[in-house]
Amino acid sequence: MFLQAVLVFVIPELLAILLFILPWIRNAIEEWDWSFVYLFTWWFHTRTFVGRGLREGLVDNVKYTVFWILVLASKFVFSYFLQIKPMVAPTKAILKVNIFQYKWHEFFGHSNRVAVVVMWMPVMLIYFTDLQIWYAIFSSFVGATVGLFSHLGEIRNIGQLRLRFQFFASAMQFKLRLRYGFGQPYTKIESSQVEATRFALIWNEIMTAFREEDLISYKELELLELPPNCWNVRVIRWPCVLLCNELLLALSQALELAEAPDSWIWLKISQSEYRRCAVIEAYDCIRYLLLSVVKYGSEENSIVGKFFNEVDGHIQIGKFAENYNLCLLPKIHSKVIQLVELLRKPRKDERATVDVLQALYELCVREFPKLKRSIPELRNDGLASQRETELLFENAVQFPDAEDEFFNRQLRRVHTILTSRDSMHDVPKNIEARRRIAFFSNSLFMNMPRAPNVEKMMAFSVLTPYYDEEVCFGKENLRTPNEDGISILFYLQKIYEDEWRNFMERMKREGMEDEDDVWDKKSRDLRLWASYRGQTLSRTVRGMMYYYRALKMLAYLDSASEVDIRAGTQLGRATSTVGLLFKGHEYGSALMKFTYVVACQVYGQHKAKGDPRADEILHLMKNNEALRVAYVDEVHLGRDEAEYYSVLVKYDQEQQREVEVYRVRLPGPLKLGEGKPENQNHAFIFTRGDAVQTIDMNQDNSFEEALKMRNLLEEFKVHYGIRRPTILGVRENIFTGSVSSLAWFMSAQETSFVTLGQRVLANPLKIRMHYGHPDVFDRFWFMPRGGVSKASRLINISEDIFAGFNCTLRGGNVTHHEYIQVGKGRDVGLNQISMFEAKVASGNGEQILSRDVYRLGHRLDFFRMLSFYYTTVGFFFNTMVVVLTVYSFLWGRLYLALSGIEGYAMETSKNNKAFGVILNQQFFIQIGLFTALPMVVENSLEHGFLPAVWDFLTMQLQLASVFYTFSMGTRAHFFGRTILHGGAKYRATGRGFVVQHKSFAENYRLYSRSHFVKAIELGVILIVYAAHSPMAQDSFVYLAMTLSSWFLVLSWIMAPFVFNPSGFDWLKTVYDFEDFLNWIWYKGGVFTKAEHSWETWWYEEQDHLRTTGLWGKLLEIILDLRYFMFQYGVVYQLNITGGKTSISVYLLSWIYMIAVMGIYVVMMYAQERFAAKEHIKYRLTQLVVISMTVLVLTLLLDFTSFTLLDLVSSMLAFVPTGWGLISIALVLRPFLESTVVWDTVVSLARIYDLLFGVIVMAPVALLSWLPGFQAMQTRILFNEAFSRGLQISRILSGKKTN
């Protein structure tokens, strides 16, 4: 019977394993609704439609299963041999120790089991958390491998692009489908091909976009562009940056091989493609130039033509070196340079030009040939003048028009090729331009589908939710200085110094005469320039409209004939924009395929109020043809009635006004939850096409990336596993990393997540969700499935990820593609970053309660569920457990020290090993190093190993570890609080520039409960342990054991001040403390805000306890009981106890607490009753209380064994007890608020916050007082910006001496 019962139990398990190996069968079964199927598959079949058929294909199944088997195997082997096994023998030894006398009253008899539990607690917590570390390690290397096979990082910088530029031209045509038919994708491109001109048109348009964005100067534009094939040049005219120095190198090679045959010399020169092209281009340009300068039809023109024909003839038969003296080439070269320089001058000097031409004639015709010819022979060959009297070139010079910009541009190019001696590796100078060129060129060698014609591509829309953020910086906003005397414009000029120079150069070309005119005549351009460097709607709109511009150009290239393309070579004569070639249909094609909808939720209200933001949005619509704005219109019908409409508007260019396109009535008010998801979903109906790209308000795009959108949309047609994609994941580039070191840390962390992290989630783990914009959605798939966001209040606070949950649960497929990227802005100040981290952590706490996560946990197979857990809620849960591990470790050490077990074990040398083992466990707590591994690996892959290591070391020197440790505390606090009590809320972080100093009171309000109080608690534990532990007597052992804990304490206390501009300025510290005291003591009233009054803030800070349930309150009280442990342990260590361990000692110690509370109540009562009117009575009360206290202390010192050291120890014991009582009183607030006790609780809490403030302020004040720390802190905080030309010392002192 037993075996039969076992068989019945095992059969479903065996079937489950079989169906796991054959996933398609399980998917098919789950999609059937037949009753007999449900009867046989009751243990996994569900009546719910959502969550069926989630199994992946066999290949994907094998990939993620193998990944997790390797991770789990590594974890268990490591844990067994280095965590569990070393603990076994010492545990047995401690359990065998004879009964000994405890130093306190032990409730658990004389057993050592509690000591064993305390020892094992941190070990077990690490055991359950370190799988997160193993995941980080394996995902880093798997992600790097996948990236390598995707050809990521093949072109890491401009230097590597130079080597592959000729193949890059071919790759661009193949991938962007600028040519058709079959053939090799990567081949060298020749000048005669139409493809060369197609490539030049696109490349020049990219460079023009760079110039419009002020990333490069006009000079750099000329050096980087591919000029049109003119002046009868026979080779492709590569950008000047590739040809620089090549002619001089060819010249030196020719001189070295002066006596060698032509074939040898040419073979040597042709080893470099660019050198070969430079030589031919220089030769052809000089011929054309000489024939242009010397009058057509003149005798001199004929001589020049004959000379070049003769040289060509010798080159064709391979006799050039044999017939000409190559040693004269440097002289000819210098004379040609002289001629070009004379022609470049605004005022032409005819006499000097004639002299140079005559000198050139003498060199080339008389001296250059090895076989010297007489005058009659030269006349006979047409190489000498028939005139006897007049000198050559006297009246034959014809200067080109000085206003001919095209001719002048070609002349400058020739001059560059002839004279450049450096290799121009610093062109372009701008770091962002270099990064973008390198990424774009690398992406064309990556695996991507080939693009279809614009007519045949999938139509798509872009959707951006907008509330009331900045659209475009106002003039006053730019020039108004902050408290440090710094305006936004001044700050931007220093960070983007080269871009400001380029902007001013552009303005002068557009007619600005004086630099001061920029505020008047060019104010719109100035405001846009600043807005394009902030996180504004203008920047996002400009970036997304590059899709429209790219599609217009690609539509032209699709339909252009060979004649049209060749006509493009004339483009450079007027301008470098391809728009002049358009025939008209390109605009229609682009509008058919692309629409941009900005969901400006309150645009109607802005218009009604006359808000300048409404005018700015209208201006954006006016200048961007494909832009549409959706908003919610509230129409009031009567006193209490209102109707709500979703409205879509556009700007009509013919009517020159805004017109309404659609109006859809809504059933009621739009806002149900946090606002943003509803804003996206109401505008979703106004998008068009097959796909929708969701773009946030702080994103950007570039022209060169927009060119690849056709390729990306083709991914919807490709099967990834057993399904086509429904969300195409796109990588992000964080563009705010250069603002400060803090922004750099955030950027580095975020970059590794949106690249390597997402790459691994998509392949091999098949569990990528939607983590925010800029993913591309299958519009028709999502439209009937609830849109792209979920909008319930609180539970959907992290609204974006629920689109991914929804997609996975309903059988969708999410992929990730890295050949295209979109810019993303991130928070740049510590307070902004912390609020963002708090929002994300709270959102994850709420996700745990959602049915989406519940269903995914139930319906995914075991290994895919592991992937899901460790990359979403598990990451935050494990972060919380890491902090709990530190707590358990330190509380455990304190228990062992105060109970006396540690001292007893120290005397027994054989038990020392147990404590050494726990000491080793401490090093695994530092999860930070392993979570930084993906960052280092991704950096190595994309930029090289040495730069990655250098960046990592630089970050450590700039205290990145302090920032990451602080962030860990933020995540742990808010995730834990949300799990316990709920109460998650949306936190608007703001997207401004952070250069102003944050006051101490503001930092205290933000971080006191999440970091300061916890850090002070851990600090008190460490001090008490140091005072009472025999192990701590050895300083080295104590430091080795507690170093990482002290680092945590200091990070949590000091980070808000280390990363605060002017954080260690002495005057600011003094003013901050005064402001803090005013805030603490200000009583306030009903409408007082938290930033003005401590009391208002204190009540707001406890809001989560008012809404929590019974279990939340019970758990909070249990956690608060730990504060009484200090008193219980320390009391028995006091000399006054005389070594007694009775429970009565602890009970009597409460007399001290009651006495202190009594004194405090008496003093507060006396202050309220007598301080104002009867001051003598108040002073008398103070005298009596002080006298009684001194008398009691004197009696204790004289008649008992009480010492002054006991007084200090008792402070460390009883202060935490008071905080514990306040914390419990807060939980019991509904019962206490109406009693007399509550006023005492409030006033006592105020004193505690003042005490905490003083403790936190003390090290800040000390460092502010010491010389040099302010300069050092500024260097740490703004180091990255320093290297970009930011003069922070001048900025922070407000001296605008520039």
TrEMBL record:
- Pfam families in the cross-refs: CALS1, Glucan_synthase
Q: Tell me where the transmembrane regions lie.
A: 6-25, 62-82, 133-152, 868-890, 945-967, 1012-1030, 1036-1059, 1145-1166, 1178-1197, 1204-1227, 1247-1266
Keyword terms, alphabetized:
Membrane, Transmembrane, Transmembrane helix
GO process terms (BP): (1->3)-beta-D-glucan biosynthetic process
- Give the domain of life: Eukaryota
One CC-aspect GO term: 1,3-beta-D-glucan synthase complex
The Glycosyl transferase domain is annotated at 427-1205
> Keyword Transferase, does the record have it?
no
| Domain (Callose synthase helical) ranges | 240-419
MF term (GO), any: 1,3-beta-D-glucan synthase activity
Q: Does Transmembrane appear among the keywords?
A: yes
Spell out the protein name for this chain.
1,3-beta-glucan synthase
